[in-house]
Amino acid sequence: MRRSPLLLLASLGLTAFSAHAAPFKCPAVGGDFVFGQEANINTLDQMTSSTISTRNIAMNIYESLMTRDDNNNPILELAASMDEAADHLTYTFKLRQGVKFHNGKAMTSADVVASFDRYARVGNQRSTLDNVASWDAPDAATFVIRMKAAQPTFIEALSSFSVPIVIIPAENRDVPAQQLTQPIGTGPFQLVESVPGSYVKLKRFDGYQPNTSFENRTGFGGYKQACLNTVTFRIVTESGARVAGLKTGELQGVEDLPTKSLPDLKKDPAISVLPLNNWWIQIANPNTSAPPTDNVLVRKAIQAALDMDEVMDAASDGNYKLNVGFQYPNQPTYTDAGKETYNQHNAETAKKFLTQAGYAGEPVVLLTNKDYPPMYNSALVMQQQLQAVGINAQMKVVDWPTSVQMMLNTTEGWNFHFTGWGTQPALGALATMQFLVQPNATYKPKGGVDDPDVLAAWNDMNKLPAAADRQAAFARMQKLVLERVYAIPFGSFTKVQGVRSNVGGFAPFRIPRMANVWMTR
Length: 521
Known about the structure:
With about 525 residues, the chain is an alpha+beta fold. About 30% of the residues lie in helices and about 25% in strands. The chain has 15 helices and 22 strands. Strands 2, 9, 10, 13, 14, 15, 16, 17, 18, 19 and 20 form an eleven-stranded mixed β-sheet that branches. Helix 7 (about 295-305) packs antiparallel against helix 9 (about 345-355), helix 8 runs antiparallel to helix 10 and helix 14 (about 450-465) packs antiparallel against helix 15. The protein starts with a strand and ends with a strand.
């Protein structure tokens, strides 16, 4: 066995932890932090949800064997070490000792086994485990994963927090998908109460065991402490109400500030404005199991008709960048493969495809929500642009949780689902393209059977030994997805968060991390 050099560094702490450095200590303890969240949650069962609204809350409750640091590098979390066999077919994790669940039970490898068992059965991205032959626990402190074949991207996939394999008590192994209504984790905060559509309240977990391999929080991991007494995630869907709450102090933090409010807020000494570039890729995902979008020519007509500048301007109040594909230009994995399909804004081409498809005015239903204004506004502009070329585009507006459940569970009554891919593009190409394969491929392939060309490219992304070849497979997969219109990415925009100036330690990230955050009087 050998220890992976990357994870050896990670286990020692990527913040250059030294023998003389002191770990983080809360500058102040206490306070009730109220955070204005823009959308309701569809579940707190983190294994079964890829939504930002769920992750915002749940990832303050749960932890995983591995996670990512501030720079999205894999690091150890509940694991104290990870050894990889020379043949890359076995990974042996030693667990951190003294870790407890919120119910007071000590975490052991039996809980890790049960968590992997449940994820393999109901996890939203359980394809992460497709190449795993088995896992077991030879003793209470050891967890072993055995692979079917070497997979150079396995640790990247395992450490992803897109839909992470969070560790739960073994007694919750058989809870059905999205029925884990009273989540118990090992994180610094534990659930107090969840009122759908209103708020979720957490409190400090006094039995929390920080990871002493680090000196401070980094990404979702590192040395974490709960400085706050409670954190309440209040659902505030109206952007004006979030701004007003932040200004009055009713809210100590908010996850989204509208562009038009920023000049005034920046002048307020009681408020800190925190931009996060490349927040997400605004996107519409087709339902290829339902007519008329089961016809690729209809999808190509829709793609050809779109003016991405107009869509993104409405979605972001002008705070956007056009962006081909599923990574950002500043990322090493970025590719513009398939760029010829993007931002065509060509009515003649759209009408030609409609004629070839034999389109006869069938409804194209755009499934969206008002909880996230960028999604609603994108759908509204897309409806207008499609109608302009003769497509019978209709809006179906529901709340965010309902739209997610419809997309996941039905192939009837909608043709495009509007969302944003934020966390996944930040994690890299692998996490993003996993959306486009089973068990929950977003383009809803007929019979649940993946496009074989897309699946082949995905397998190459995961299994080819050379990084350059895996990157070429990503470019091939992106080009296929765009050419066959299995997704329509519009562009990317900046998210602006905000906190009161008496809040310390809050830094913009993919979710609001409440560990190592404190409030002064």
